[in-house]
Design goal:
9 strands, mainly beta, Jelly Rolls, single chain, 7-stranded antiparallel sheet, two-stranded antiparallel sheet
Length: 98
């Protein structure tokens, strides 16, 4: 489990092709800015979040999903509290900004 104060990422399952993790954060908390080697899917199960890109923001509410493109810097911000499942290929790699 990754955790930093008011956000938490918990591994759920690993299959032969995919991994999924639970993400949760309290209102206003921004998860680390990063980009990935492969696209992935974020499914919000409770609350809402904003996915911030350099030139655009996407709000994803409970019951909605968002395909996060590969190779694009982004940051997930809770607005208000939120919980989500992040579904990604096993071979995905992340790069975090400093």
């Amino acid at each position: 489990m990754e955790s930093s104060g008011q956000y938490k990422v918990t591994p759920l399952q690993t299959g032969s092709l995919f991994v999924n993790k639970r993400m949760e954060a309290t209102s206003g908390v921004a998860m680390p800015r990063h980009k990935s080697s492969i696209e992935s899917v974020l499914v919000v199960t409770d609350g809402r979040c904003v996915i911030r890109f350099a030139d655009d923001n996407h709000t994803v509410a409970q019951g909605e999903s968002f395909v996060v493109p590969a190779h694009m810097w982004h940051q997930v911000v809770a607005d208000p509290d939120f919980k989500a499942v992040h579904i990604m290929p096993k071979e995905i790699r992340f790069e975090f900004s400093r």
